[in-house]
UniProtKB/TrEMBL annotation:
This is Cytochrome C nitrite reductase. PANTHER family: DIHYDRO-HEME D1 DEHYDROGENASE, PROTEIN NIRF. The lineage of its organism: Bacteria, Bacillati, Candidatus Sysuimicrobiota, Candidatus Sysuimicrobiia, Candidatus Sysuimicrobiales.
């Protein structure tokens, strides 16, 4: 589904985009992370049902390609072993980098749809969400479902694994982010013995080591997006709600980890996206409830937060298990 809104106006549904085999004959549509390339106005979605990366033209809201169809793990019935998973596009290289299972990261040509590199990192389950450092030409990708979970550094130049950090006490890893102003990666750690409510790790890509840890309270973070002024929007997950916490989205300063704002109108999120076009964060809050607590009625939404004031704007009703969001700067929300 796509939505749009001019600044100051309410959001409204534009259309439902038709994709082959969706809904499938059996079960639900299986998909994972999405990504928007603003220059080409293309929306990319990791489509497990079709075993491909779907490409949507956001100017016409139509499916224009399915990249590397049949070359991923597909929908195995278990997210931990399915693929494609995370997706990220590097336009200058004409490539999409895609996480897959088991422990596989694939570089896909955007024009031909062919896989031009397939890199294994030793994981037994899926390689999931990822971020890109254009200065050092590094991809960081999280293997959240392995025990213990770990992140891998991959050179986009040599297309080889060049580093790894293992999280021996972590209960999972989720969406990473990169800040081009200070050259640091940031990695969501769902929980650990040291920080049961989760944390965001600050990682130096040059040394490939954690240089700071920012503990979070009752969050168990999933989504992470860089906004203005070194701010990170942290999407606290449905796991935290299940544990008795109130739904929340936390804005932190990535220089020292201090909390800038706590938004309680939306939470239970997976992917989080920042749109510079309207200076807003968008949260794929599939586990949001009517009262923000675990005894509330399920009310999945896309949350909208003003990145200038760090205040909640609205919640857009979405659908069951709608856990992926990416936004074109012309204000089309996918």
């Amino acid at each position: 589904m796509t939505f749009t809104a001019a600044l100051g106006q309410s959001y409204h549904k534009l259309t439902t985009i038709s994709v082959p085999n969706v809904p499938p004959k059996k079960g639900a549509f299986s998909y994972d992370i999405s990504w928007v390339d603003p220059a080409s106005h293309r929306y990319y979605l990791a489509d497990r049902t079709n075993n491909a990366v779907d490409v949507i033209d956001t100017t016409t809201n139509t499916l224009v390609a399915q990249l590397a169809r049949g070359k991923f793990a597909g929908n195995t019935g278990k997210p931990d072993t399915s693929g494609p998973d995370g997706v990220l596009v590097i336009p200058g290289d004409n490539l999409a980098w895609v996480g897959d299972s088991p422990g596989s990261i694939k570089a896909v040509n955007l024009k031909s749809g062919a896989i031009v590199a397939s890199i294994t990192n030793g994981g037994k389950n899926r390689a999931d969400e990822l971020a890109y450092d254009p200065k050092d030409h590094l991809i960081v990708i999280a293997n959240n479902a392995d025990d213990p979970p770990f992140i891998t550094f991959i050179s986009t130049t040599s297309r080889k694994v060049v580093g790894k950090i293992t999280y021996t006490s972590a209960g999972g890893l989720e969406q990473p982010a990169y800040d081009p102003e200070n050259g640091m990666f940031y990695q969501n750690v769902v929980s650990s013995k040291e920080n049961p409510g989760g944390a965001v790790d600050k990682i130096d890509p040059k040394t490939m080591k954690v240089v700071a840890t920012y503990p979070l309270t009752e969050c168990k973070p999933a989504g992470l997006a860089l906004g203005p002024q070194h701010h990170l929007a942290v999407g606290c997950s449905g796991d935290a709600i299940d544990d008795g916490a109130h739904a929340q989205t936390i804005i932190i300063d990535d220089t020292d980890g201090h909390v800038v704002a706590t938004i309680t109108e939306v939470g239970g999120s997976d992917e989080v996206w920042y749109n510079p076009g309207d200076n807003r964060y968008y949260t794929a809050s599939r586990s949001m409830t009517s009262n923000g607590m675990k005894d509330g009625k399920p009310t999945p939404v896309v949350g909208v937060i003003d990145a200038g004031t760090n205040k909640w704007i609205t919640n857009i009703p979405s659908g069951k298990n709608a856990h992926s969001v990416a936004v074109d700067p012309v204000s089309v929300v996918g």
